[in-house]
Structures are given as C-alpha cells and as structure tokens.
Amino acid sequence: MAASDPVPGVHAAPAASAGVRIDDGLAQAMQAWRRDFHRHPELGHQEHRTAARVAELLRSWGIAVHEGYGGTTGVIGVLDGRRGAGPILGLRADMDALPMPDAGAHDHRSVHAGVAHACGHDGHTAILLGAACHLAAHPDFAGRIVFIFQPAEEPLTGAKALAEAGLFRDFPCDELYGLHNNNCIGPGQVGVRTGAILSACDLFEIHIRGVGGHAAMPHQANDPIVAGAALVQSLQSVVSRNVSPLDTAVLSVCQFQAGSAINVIADHAVLRGTVRTLSREAQARVLERLRGLCEGTARGYGCEVEFRHLLSSPPTVNQAGPVEHVKRAAAAVLGTGQVVDPVTPLMASEDFAYLLDHRPGAYFFLGHDGLTCHHPEFDFDDALLAQGAAIFATLVYQRLAG
Asked: For binding Mn(2+), which residues are annotated in this chain's numbering (predicted)?
C-alpha cells in the first residue's frame, strides 16, 4: 500500500486547528492488536514477536521500517509528509511486559506464565500503530515522523540502548513525544506539566560484613544486623534533613536479608532499596549522603560496608514548548476542559527520560479507567486507544502544518 492510499476506516486529515477522529474500524483494529499483544507478552529485549508484528503492520501501510535497530528488538518507522521538507517529530511507544503473573479473568489474559502486560505497554504500542496507520493514509503534512517502538522500558535500559546506538544520528528528531496511561486522572483527560513529570530512579544494594558467632556470646562477634538496623534508621534522615523542602525525594529500604539460623549471629547482611527524586540536584545529594552514611556506619561499628549502585536513570523532564503543543492537540481532540496542567508528578520512573536528555519533548498521561499499573489483574482501558492515537495524529498535523 502506498503512503498516499486511503486506509479503510480512517478519516481524512483535519485542519490544523481541528482534532483527528479515529474511525470505528481503526479503533476496532487497534483493540485487536492490543489484546493480541496482551495475550503474548514479552520481557525487555525479548520482544521478538511483538516487534515482528509491529514491523509487518508498518510495512503494510507503506512506512519505511528498520528492524532490530542497534542490535536491540527496537523497531523504527519513518514516514515523510507529502508537503515536502519540515520539522522531524519523534513519537515513542514501549513494547515490553513485566515479569509477573496475569491474574485477570478476561479472555485475552497472558498465555505465558509469569509474564504480563500489567503496565499498559500493549496499549501504548497499539496507540502508536493506530497513529501511524492514520498518518500513512493521510500524510498531509510537511516534515517527517519517526515512530520509535522501544524495547525494555521496565528495566530502564531500552531507551538508553537506542540512544547509544545512534538513534538521533540516524533518525534526527527536533521534538519527541510519549505517553502513558494513568488512573490518577479521570478517564477522557490528559495530564501534562512543564518540568519533571516522573522521577529519577536509583537502585542500590549495601553489603555489611561483620563477624559471625553464637547468639549467646555476641561479644565474640560483630553483628552486621545491628549495624544494618542502625544504617536503615540513619537513612530515614536523608530526605528530611538533606533535601530541600521545596524538592521531592523518596528513599526506601525494601529488603534486609541476613542469617540462616535462629541462634547464630550472621556474618553478612544485605540491604536493597531505591531512591526516587524529581531533580538531578536532589538525586546527586541523596546518593552522596547514602554513600557517606555507609562509610560512617563502617567506622562506627567496625565492620565492612560496601555500597553498590545498581541502576540509575534521570528524571523525565518536559520542556515548556512541547508541553504547550501537547495541550493544544489534546484540547482539539478531547476539549479544553479535559486537559490537566500542571498534573501532579509521579514518583515512578520512565526511561523516556534518556531520550529527553538528547532532544526537547514532552511526556503526558492519558486518564485510565481501571486498576493501577503493576496490579496482577491490570488490563489496559481500550477506550484510551482511539484517544491516544488521535492526540498523536493531531499533534503531527498541528506541528507540521507547513
């Protein structure tokens, strides 16, 4: 199918000021794609079936496709408008699922034990496919669209892998846009804000090595549990005493593991946890203090304390200009009263942040009617599919009016 050929069930491109309406035929196709992805979830960097289906659909609409980009399972689609040269917009969707069971009762629940689309990436992929289908049928714009189907968002490694592989060298983008379902705002609403909309994520592991011994003779041992308990308590002061009250941070110790018998003092304890921050300044300060308290605990308790920084990702920070473009497109599709700005930021994290480190853009929320992400019975709200695709397509027509 040539890019200029009409796609059944897709309306013509609207005027720049109007909003796209997704036809029922395309909306039904998007629902079918989404439920198929939900039934066949794949973990990060293993999205082979999903990526192949995405590539197949993009090619069927005349979109240039680059599979396996950068040695990953990422798929990049490129579509040029019929009005000639213009800006280049990047639209991104994540494709991976979570390593958890699908406890849903619906017919399209996961067929893979221990893997589930419990975050909505099946919906995000279907939304971007719907937008691509519409835009390929009616490329009445000046410029280029780069459709970025990204692997491995959940482990926060996919976007970084694409960027390091040369994504913006090979597919230059002037602006980037991404979305996520969110039940913290009402169905039929869009939430966006300038600045940080999602937090940075840092994961850490702390090993405390002391001297084991008999529980009845603690003076002959050096108990790492005592040192670890003191460290956990000390860490609670980091946010309250080292981060500005006008900034936001969370530090949670989520695992404390030590010992194998009820009457034996362990020689080794392990703490694991996470830091979430909305600014790079707070992120650096919390990590600095975390390391400092580990060093202080080692000196104070005469044990060895090793801090391991397992993962770090930046906050997701929106630029003011792209935020205004999202608001304009969302208002055209849903109505001005359905746009929430500023939406309350979430302390969850997103590796779209890595892409925004390279190019200006905006990440926005679609109001979700249903359970919170990562719930074992989570299922994507299919009503969002047409809304999301319409907002993406409207954004393109408004930004690339020529």
From this structure: 119, 121, 154, 180, 374
